[in-house]
Design brief:
By secondary structure, the chain is mainly β. It has one domain: Porin. Helix content is 5%, strand content 65%. The protein has 1 helix and 16 strands. The protein has a 14-stranded antiparallel barrel with strand order 1-2-3-4-5-6-7-8-9-12-13-14-15-16. Strands 10-11 form a two-stranded antiparallel ribbon. Strand 15 and strand 16 form a beta hairpin. The radius of gyration is 20 Å and the shape is globular. The relative contact order is 0.19.
């Protein structure tokens, strides 16, 4: 594998994690933050409110290789979502848009992600306040710059999703989910793989009072390869393991939120990226965010978040983000 393709993979992983913070750590139960939409459909059944929400974020950062800065990032993103409940049926939908402006400090003819958009929709059914089953779908469209000799590349990932969340005790929830993912892109063979997620969540307190929500989940995305056919190039999805967590505390209408994730991408054989001489076989990406929101029983929701993201490989990417969340809870 060459230098160009390795860097391309790292950028795609970085973009994926930035988008994942629109939906992270809501796999078993739904966040107390009504401006977020869920990662797995079944989680929506445990939400107490109906409403709509949105966010605007700005981020900046840089890439360095062997201590030398090679690129600067200037990122903006928006998202919007809707939550509705009909008796024991919950409906969730959301969209997000991400754009990256890149300044090159050292000229390198390598691929870069220019922009992407994501859309999600899900439906869940709650049975006897004991078990939730959900179905959903999502689509992620990416637009990449290749180099001066190639056209920009369009990539579409789509998935159908199924998940379950079971209330074991009054406060403890266990669950899991499955995604069947399809990837299509210009000039490449279609690729398919399955993502599997398991997790646990704990919720204490009652609506309108002091509340605490905790969650941990693990996502396994195995390696998948499609061989080249005719003029279409091979397609490779590398194994990815992701651990996500969340802690939320509601006090007198103020919601304090902490979330994080660690994602590891595994290469089948160790690789070297010039000018480094060390071999690398695991790309690690960590993200952490903290925020506070005003969340009334009904009416306007308002808050802000700070996020840091770091990629460690033969290079280092560091990005800092500020986000504003706004929403409205229906009566």
């Amino acid at each position: 594998m060459n230098y160009k393709f390795q860097l391309k993979l790292s950028i795609l992983v970085l973009a994926g994690v930035l988008v994942s913070f629109w939906v992270s750590a809501q796999s078993i139960t739904a966040s107390l933050d009504p401006t977020d939409f869920v990662r797995m459909p079944a989680a929506a059944s445990w939400r107490d409110t109906e409403g709509l929400g949105g966010s605007y974020r700005e981020a900046s950062g840089n890439r360095s290789i062997d201590g030398n800065e090679t690129h600067k990032y200037d990122i903006s993103a928006t998202s919007a979502n809707l939550h509705l409940k009909f008796s024991n049926v919950s409906f969730d939908a959301g969209i997000g848009q991400w754009a990256n402006s890149i300044t090159t400090e050292q000229q390198q003819n390598i691929p870069m992600l220019l922009d992407q958009s994501i859309g999600r929709i899900s439906l869940s059914l709650l049975g006897n306040e004991f078990v939730s089953i959900g179905l959903g779908a999502w689509e992620n469209n990416r637009h990449e710059y290749q180099d001066a000799t190639e056209d920009n590349l369009n990539i579409t990932e789509s998935a159908i999703v199924g998940s379950i969340s079971v209330r074991v005790f009054d406060f403890l929830y266990l669950g899991g989910g499955y995604e069947r993912v399809k990837e299509e892109s210009d000039g490449r063979v279609e690729n398919n793989w399955n993502n599997a997620l398991i997790g646990a969540s704990a919720m204490f307190g009652e609506p309108g009072g002091t509340r605490l929500r905790l969650e941990y989940s693990h996502l396994n995305s195995p390696r998948a390869e499609s061989d080249s056919q005719g003029s279409s190039k091979e397609s490779i999805h590398r194994e990815i393991q992701t651990n996500s967590y969340a802690a939320e505390l509601m006090l007198n209408g103020l919601l304090f939120v902490g979330r994080g994730s660690e994602e590891k991408m595994f290469f089948k054989d160790p690789k070297t990226i010039p000018p480094s001489t060390k071999e690398y076989d695991v790309l690690t990406l960590t993200s952490n965010e903290a925020g506070v929101l005003w969340v009334p029983e009904n009416g306007i929701v308002l808050g802000f978040f700070f996020t840091t993201t770091k990629t460690s490989f033969a290079f280092e990417d560091e990005i800092s983000e500020f986000r504003i969340n706004v929403g409205y809870i229906f009566e």
